[in-house]
Design goal:
This protein is an alpha/beta fold and about 290 residues long. It has one domain (about 10-290): 3-Layer(aba) Sandwich (Rossmann fold), CATH 3.40.50.150. Helix content is about 45%, strand content about 15%. It has helices at about 10-25, 40-50, 50-65, 70-90, 105, 110-115, 125-135, 155-160, 185-195, 210-215, 220-230, 245-250; strands spanning about 95, 115-120, 145-150, 170-175, 205-210, 255-260, 285-290. Strands 3-2-1-4-5-7-6 form a seven-stranded mixed β-sheet, sandwiched between helices. The relative contact order is 0.14. Bound molecules: S-adenosylmethionine. S-adenosylmethionine binds near residues 98, 99, 151 and 181.
Length: about 290
Amino acid sequence: MEANKASVTAELMARNRAAEHLLVPAGQRICNDSYAHHFISTEGRRNLNSPLRRTIRRLVFRFLYPGVYNTIIARVRFLDDRVQACLAAGLEQLVILGAGYDTRAYRLNGLAERVQVFEVDHPATQAVKKAKLKEIFNPVPGHVHHVPVELERDNLAEQLKKAGYDPNQKTFFIMEGLVMYLPPPFVDKILGFIREQSGAGSAVAFDYLPPSMVDGTVKAREGRSMMKAVRKWGEPFKFGLNVNDAAGFMRLRGFKDIMNVHAPELKHTIFKGNPRGEDISGIFGLMFAVVDSR
Ligand SMILES: C[S@@+](CC[C@H](N)C(=O)[O-])C[C@H]1O[C@@H](n2cnc3c(N)ncnc32)[C@H](O)[C@@H]1O
């Protein structure tokens, strides 16, 4: 990431959630995010508000990035569902790494009452988010703690503890759209921190892309388009994992009860009965795993 520039991809993710929430009838929505539109740029807002721009962009997006929109909104839902399951199992802390304009802390039922939420992100992106939050809420809800961290430079454990993180509590860590932007040793470092410095029953979830998205050998059209775009925005992919290797990767790093989902499988779960589910990208994988504290 560039040092002083807010993440472009974080804003694009907010655009997807805003589009799903504002343009899809409630009964057919894959995810809900009534706050997302606050975080999108003037251009993003124009694209969302104009039927002509929307149609053009939909056609271009479908051609360049087939299945990606559905996969992104399904990843939001997959993670929302995991948060609800963790809440039912006695969650005490939620740590959202690479939070961007994530709004779970403000929109998911049950968090504000019982859970301390830590939003960790690059200082440049987080500064933009905090300014927006001040406009939306006055004051910003007290269960949310903002932790500015450059994950390739700063000490995550130190910064989290300074913000009030308790390593003995049951914690769920979310890394949505994050690991692919980090060099592999930093992904290991974060997983090591989660394994060593969280309470019994803690868990992590993230999405991942294959190594072919890092070395440039990817064949899928959406993969080639994504690689080109993130390079242009100064946020190149650095970490890749094959779906068939992901469970072993997590076991080796001290995790158990692994739920490893290849995105097209979501046709049979999240998209069941919804015709949009035919169009899912095969390059994404989704991971949920519990810290093995034996
Ligand atoms: C694709 S966005 C995802 C944002 C959000 N999780 C979502 O899904 O809407 C990637 C996020 O990772 C953050 N990020 C990337 N590299 C980082 C780093 N080295 N240190 C801290 N944050 C980083 C960016 O600031 C950005 O918010």
